[in-house]
Amino acid sequence: MELILETLGLAESAKLLSLSPPGWGANLLRGLANSLKIASGAFGFGLLIGLFGAYGKLYGGPVLRDLLAIYTTVIRAVPELVLILILYYVGTDLINQASSAMGYGRVEISGIVAGIWVLGIVQGAYSIEVLRGAILAVPPGQIEAARAFGMPPLMTMWRVTIPAMMSFATPGLANLWLIATKDTALLAIVGFSELTLETRQAASSTRAYFTFFLAAGGLYLMVTLCSGAVFGRIEKWARRGQPSLREDRG
Amino acid sequence: MTTLKSLMIPHRIVMMALFAALVLWCAVTLRWDWIPKYTPLAMQGLWNTIWIMAVTTVLGFLLAVPLGLAQAIGPWYLSIPARSFCTVIRGTPLLLQIWLLYYGLGSLFPQFPWIRSSELWPYLRQAWPYAVLALTLSYAGYEGEVMRGAFSGVAKGQLETAKSFGMRRFTMFRRIWLPQAIRNVLPTLGGETILQLKATPLVATITVIDIYAVSSRVRSDTFIVYEPLLLLAVIYMVIAGLITLAFKRFEVKLPR
Amino acid sequence: MKLNTMLAVTVAAAALAAGAATAEQVKIGIAAEAYPPFASVDSSGTWGGWEIEVIGAVCAAAKLDCVITPVAWDGIIPSLTGKQIDAIMASMSITEERAKTIDFSNAYYNTPAVIVADKSMDIEPTPESLAGKIIGIQASTIHQAYAQEYFKGSEIRVYQTQDEANQDLFAGRIDAIQADSIAMADFVGSDAGGCCEIKGPVANDESILGRGAGAGVRKGDDALREALNAGIAAILADGTHEKITARYFNASIYSE
């Protein structure tokens, strides 16, 4: 009896999760795609901020350095959820005011762009610290050598600093990417249709809360594990030619 | 004080003046008339935020020690579950974990009527036990991974010495291994506690009234958007600052 | 890694470019959290329900090019004032408090607020009867405002969505719900709501409960407000409103 019930229960879950309606599997996958889009956009945007921010913190003037310090401190002390709400409302407001001041009409901001902007700003603060540490770990002689051969600063950055720091930055960046994918769940609170919101809608429509939350958890876990494998390869690649050091992340 | 001296640089004075002007501008032009009415509620919310953070950090840490130990030296039937637990907790969003615990478990209650007549029911009806459970498990998952590294980081020689002096395994653990592992993780604990503080607003989504929920209440009652959020951000920054200071003091006092 | 970085940056840039197109359409904001039978999303991701059909009919009658845009209910008014949407049609009651922040069209439906509780519970929709009980309500609704004003002797739990409040009533975590009568009729008619029944309407207070649900627009956006009013009047006059209602309910939900 128990066994039959259990198989029946599982059959019910399978029906709910099937990819074609009335199953909700496709919704979850659509949500997952949105989550990944936002996460990769935010990660990229954050890296951009991080790269310039790290350079600013290392080589910038005192004012720039202080401003960047304020940015990283504030972002790292305030909960992401609160930051997301503030940036979401303030950001779209500011963009609209700016565009109407410049004589353009209202700018329409799609959910994905808003999500990338919001999470990117948060990611940027953490990226700065990761990349700053990585740049500092590059033996200064390498950069000095590039300068001595008359390489322009941008070329030095692109050809010497960035490739050399990659191996130091990869573990931190992998961690940031995982944070980005998980932080997209917070966007459910402001109503973006990413994986967590889709899950919530499916769960409350069908009342199968357990099934859907577990399924979504499985999807997130899959992303995490796959990313772990990919970043492991990248790290190996970035470390090529370097003496292997047993990494201890403590 | 050196910190005061470092502030007396011209550009920092200018920046501070600008900041003061910004604060003044906020104080004058934005709406703050709602504050007196919501102060008692905010105090209650603040208290909830702080105790949930403190309790779950302590409980989570207590759970993290065996998790770390199991991963570092445990036999496979302990280390594999411990490692899977940490992977699952770290690999899924906390918001989802909270909802799974609260609404997922909640949806099972009607199928088991005896739960409602049990002694535990008055607690199971409340939202905070789920919040505490979810945040504790989350902290344990992250910190368990850190503890694994900390246990592995204790120099083998010391343990071998202890063994050669005939110290019993448990004494060795209590007197040498654990204290050193804890000292290894201390520098990271402050940061982890701030991360835990930053996780607390998620409990507002399962009806726990923390300081974040109070700010949402102000927003929905008065339709004032920015002011409660800004004040909320400042409150979190102050708490985070206090945590940092407290851990700094603690670390200085500890012999190295 | 370099490739990965460049790829991510390109994706971000492309997304920014795609999102920056200016719009001519009227974005009708609805709550991203389902509110059956007025608005709910099915497993193919399309929205349907009484209100969705009414939005379609009003827009067609007013010759507006509308797009339905789900946003979080909790932040729907800030989304309107922040110009992420142009109008709210999300069963939002016209209240004095909200009218300070946004303008409203005429009402397109009105229903009383009711108390729902377990069948076995002897509960009247009065403050005395509900004293000491736990009442669940959805955040940022007239019901929250009402319960906070009138049910001071009860514990009030605030949920982000109506569905979650319903779920907790079903699970037995709360004793009663205050909500809109039609949404509740739908709920008690469903499997999950079989536990419960409507105990009756709460005493009316028009200053809090409002004068029915209307479309919200930004202050001063009279062109859109007039257009929506014309659309609402048109579907009321030509029987479209009645036809849609008949498909969902067995009684009219509109009165002058």
Explain this structure to me?
The complex is a heterotrimer of chains A (250), B (256) and C (256). In chain A, helix 2 packs antiparallel against helix 3 and helix 3 crosses helix 5 (111-137). Chain A has helices at 2-17, 25-59, 62-77, 80-101, 111-137, 140-148, 153-183, 195-206, 209-238. By secondary structure, chain A is mostly helical. Chain A starts with a helix and ends in a 12-residue tail after the last helix. Chain A contains nine helices and no strands. Chain A has one domain: MetI-like (MetI-like fold, Orthogonal Bundle). The radius of gyration of chain B is 23 Å and the shape is flat. The model of chain B has no long low-confidence stretch (mean pLDDT 90). The longest helix of chain C is centred in the first third of the chain and has 18 residues, at 2-19. In chain C, 50% of the residues are buried. Mean pLDDT of chain C is 88; it is low at 1-23. The termini of chain C are far apart. Chain C has a five-stranded mixed beta sheet with strand order 4-1-5-12-6. In chain C, strands 9-8-10-7-11 form a five-stranded mixed beta sheet, with helices on both faces. Chain C has a two-stranded antiparallel ribbon with strand order 2-3. Chain C is globular. Chain C folds into two domains: 22-110 and 211-248, Periplasmic binding protein-like II (D-Maltodextrin-Binding Protein, domain 2, 3-Layer(aba) Sandwich), CATH 3.40.190; 113-209, 3-Layer(aba) Sandwich (D-Maltodextrin-Binding Protein, domain 2), CATH 3.40.190.10. Chain C has 256 residues and is α/β, with parallel strands linked by helices. Chain C contains eleven helices and twelve strands. Classes of the chains: A mainly alpha (250), B mainly alpha (256), C alpha/beta (256). Chains in contact: A-B, A-C, B-C. The interface between A and C is large, with 53 and 44 residues.
